[in-house]
Queue: 2 jobs
Job 1
Amino acid sequence: MGSGLLNIVKKEVKEMVRDPRLLLGMIIVPLVMFPVMGLAMSASMSTVEESASHIEIGLVDHDMAMRSSEFTSFLEAREVIVTHYTDAEMNDFIAGGEYDVDLFVEIPVGFTAEIESNATAYVVLYTRMETYSISEGIPADVVSDHVYEYRQQLLDERISQTYPGQDPVLVENPVLVSSVSIVDGEVHQTRPTDITGQLMSQSIMMPMVLMILLILAAQLAAVSVAMEKEEKTLETLLTMPVARSSILFGKIAGVVAISALAVVAYIFGFSIYMGGMMSVGSPGAGLSLSDLGLVPSLEGMVLLLVTLFLSLVSALSLAVLIASFTEDVRSAQSLIGVIAVPIFVPALILMFMDISQMPTVIQGVIMAIPFSYPIIASKALYTGEYLYVLIGIVYQVIFTTITIYLAARLFSSEKILTARLNLKKKGGTGFPLIDLMTSRKKK
Amino acid sequence: MTNAVETQGLSKHYKNVVALEGLSITVNPGEVYGLIGPNGAGKSTTLRIVTTLLQPTAGGVKVFGIDVLDKPEDVRKIISYLPEEAGSYKQLTGREYLNFMADFFDVDDSHRTEMVNRGIEIAGLDERIDDRTKEYSKGMRRRLLIARALMTLPKLAVLDEPASGLDVKHAYYVRGIIRDYVKKHGVTVLLSSHNMLEVEFLCDRVGLIDEGKLVDVGSPKDLTRKYNATNLEDVFIKVTEGELAKGTVRPERGTGGPANALGMKANTTQGSDGGPGTGEGSDG
């Protein structure tokens, strides 16, 4: 019945591709959403950088002495455009008056005197909050940074006076830290968190995105079965001269085909998004993992693909199985939410901890969930620790075989038509699989 | 000669419901056999067992000598089934739907094209055959489904309420197709209907079932004579008197003859189609 299988696959793909809701969620959204998010991120970040490089301040100098004019020149040397205003004008600004400046800077009376007497002098920055956007706070931060630099200059001056002939930098830093990360026996002058940050963004984010896709694919498979029931096409299909297993595999293969298309869309969209993110800087940005010798191995890539494929097939067959107990698309979709939890939880936990560091119970739970392995495999890409991945693949094969077997049994029996999920039903456990098995036993 | 359909002591029990109890019927090749009975009598259950969808609790069924329980795949090759409530794939056009269904049959390309062309002719939807079926009215969709069921020239066509819920025009068309086309190609038909006048018009023989059992069988003419009735509707009422007493069948009588019935959307017995649990769907 090979042609029957192909016939079902063609029909499934045709239906899915023609369904605008589906096309939107799986292909258009990732192709458009991720790049737009990436572009928006880099655009907003460059706007922020732009606003940080062109700062205009209104200066009210009450001190009018040596240090205040020194500080003003210090700011001007750092490309801050300074316009002098009176006290009354500053009060007008506070009251809402329009001035073509980012903020007002007030140098109080006695600024120079305080500095000269080794006491603390203050500079007051007035920012009027109007849009509450991040960029509104940037100018004050930039000026604060300049104040900090000026403070450092004054400090160096004091140290030079107290310890003539000595390097102020050495005097200021009696102790410092130098962090070294050892990668495969090689020493690198890099903080370990920079490496993990980089690894996280490159090797964990992608599987996370694929996990989202896995849930979408599971939804798709569930909808495909539930739709046959809701639209009353299943009964007819089941009386056609085609093996029941071909109907099941045809549906799964159709979703796998569409998912493959969606994977390409997601990877393309996501790489643009990451490109946008990377250009504005993230922990460890500019750090090249390949320079550190952290190159994903070929066997690691193959294992990752295998675990991803097995996860997809097991999620789809589980989704089909669950959807077979529902009467309509809406109930199928909400039941699939149940699968989403075990897909996401291990992924999140594994992002922050290695499986070998976890307590045995948690380790057992995570390893019992077949959807954990793509994340474990994506870490193993760099560590080369394939033991858990290999165990996982064997487990995934067993899990998938059992799920497919159960789904095939369901499709070849009348249960595909008569099984109903009724959580309130008397005598039902509320768990469809258990109910199915016990009802089979009674027979 | 091998019987087209032969059921032997067919029973189907659900948890708390007995849908069929020892039903034995025989359908001869080339005849149109109608199953009639009140809601929940077991008509749809019988059809679903014959079409390999349900498994009987006891008893057996043969379709043209093939055991439905032992060789369901072989049975599916020679039958076609039109469920009472059936849909089409909304994103496919009428033509694509027929092509999809034709592709399941192991025939060469020219036969497949012939099959689909036959379906298009039966459906009679003209250029609308290339519209997606989500744009079809209920009547158009039913015509497409009837076409799908008959285009393969099955040895046995099982039709559950073929014209149910259709307006005068579409119901007339569907009945005409069943009568003319099926007779012309010698297709055996097993159908169920609530519309007694439709049954009288279409069927060579009728099996009256009630509470999962066969009450009587015969040609519409023989049955009306036997029960001293004016038409099959009267026969139905007399046979289901027990049901009447329980109040599950409304004791109204239709006045129209067969000619009238062709155009009627529903006859009096259909008035008993009630809420959840009483409809045909509940017996399956």
Note: Chain B has eleven helices and eleven strands.
Job 2
Amino acid sequence: MAAMQRSFMNVVSKSRNLVGSNPRTPSWSLNRNRTADQALLLATENNTSSGVDFQVRFASLKAVRSRMRSVASISKITKAMKMVAAAKLRGVQARQESSKPFTAGLKSFLKSTFSEIEGKETSGNHLIVAVTSDRGLCGGVNSNVVREIRKLLHEDKQNQYAILLCGDKGRDGLQRLYRNLFVVTIKDVFRAPVNFAQTCVVAEEIFKQKFDSVAIFYNHFKNAISQVVTRKVIPGLDIILKHAETFDSYEFESDMDSAQTLTDLYEFQFAVQLFDALLENATSEQAARMSAMDNATRNASEMYQKLTLTYNRQRQSVITGELIEIISGAEAL
Amino acid sequence: MLGRTAVSYLRKQTQVHILKRGFADQVAQGSEKLKLSFATPTSALRKDASVDMVVFPAATGMMGVLPQHVPTVAQLKPGVVTVIEEGKEDKYFVSSGFAFVTQDRTDILAVEAVRLEDLDKEAVQRGLSECESAINSASDEVSQAIAQIGVEVHSAMKSALES
Amino acid sequence: MVQQWRAAGLTYLRYANICADFVRKALKEPKRTEALSRTTFEMTKSEWSEGKVAKRESLTQEAERNNVSSSNK
């Protein structure tokens, strides 16, 4: 019995150490007290038999009840966040559908011209444009982009890279190792629905940098459950002008010389492709947030059910223990 | 060959560019349609639509496109895009953009496209006068360039509303 | 030979968006307000140098539109 008492106290003290110990996980995080929950579950399971301290049993009852309350409120929050994300997803998806003919209109032209040039030159200065969100709780979308960029920077030691970031999450993920490569970070890109005028301003910031090619990393939206990290490569203007003969199969209707026309066309196609990437990422962000909050709500309700069972079992054993003491006390008289 | 409306339309537009077509003798009688997408960043005015013809304001002049056109990239200037379907004309004023024409399809990408009836005639006239006087009072190159752009756009809107 | 706006330092994108804004401003209400509000934005840009933020600047449509209209006065 002393051994059982000792092992029980070990488990309870371990759980006390874990409660609120880690300052970095926020107080509402479900991860914070998972081990503490398991300790509580273990402790109360071991108590159903006999002779463990009366006060300790009551303390664990209160702990379970307060834990249940916090899990219930967390699940309310995540459920609300899921509905907000679902509504936002509908909106941004509709906007993306309306923009599809605009962003897709260039595709066959680019395939026969820009894509041909892209394959020819791969070395030099590259600018990485990382498209991420400002806010978190959106599943893997931001960490996937950060991981792909880290992989590229780790593997390619020959070329020079600079990084332009749209969104704070990308900055947070890359700044520890690669802050020296940062040139510009832009915040609040996705605060309001992405529009073309805004995209052009971001494109102009990109044009201010010197580069031989640009690699845009973003999440392509396949459907509500699947968002895939994609890399879109666009050669720099100088490279395009160098290979101007690739455009010979097209007649150009313009009142300026071919270099001017190509420059105007280059800036336009860049903005259209960037617009596509920003829209796709905005849609992916909402979809990923909806599914992450959905999972969190499901986990929270599972945890709540487990805690309810534990609570009831514990409550019954407390009552049984009280009865036994009363009866044995009465018998002693 | 061409629909009656298309032919009379072409006769009206004296500045219509020479239509360049390849394989002209292979064009079927009246059954050939042009696949057209005409879009702005926020809306699709035509999405893979089958039309008879489309006329748009290229920098070199009004350009008419029929099926089986030679591959062309046209820089647009402010002006009117006319979509001809089933003999009917649908007109939009576009601010600027590019048109990509291939054998199979035509894609017109405009930054802004509005219906002519949505333009306010007085506002256009007011804007034109403001920009014209701004050219003279401009303090730097950028302001002057912006005012010049304003004159170009407002003049185009004005003539679109008057025709 | 270049366009006047290119010589003044504007990009094609700036030219295209200025044209688009002139067209929007010439619309009848309520389409005018809807079109202008659909194309606003407010972002903050930070320029980095050697791993630290060197300069912060806000990029807003309001500022752009004020630039254009002040040149019309």
Note: Chain A touches chain C through 31 residues (CB under 8 Å).
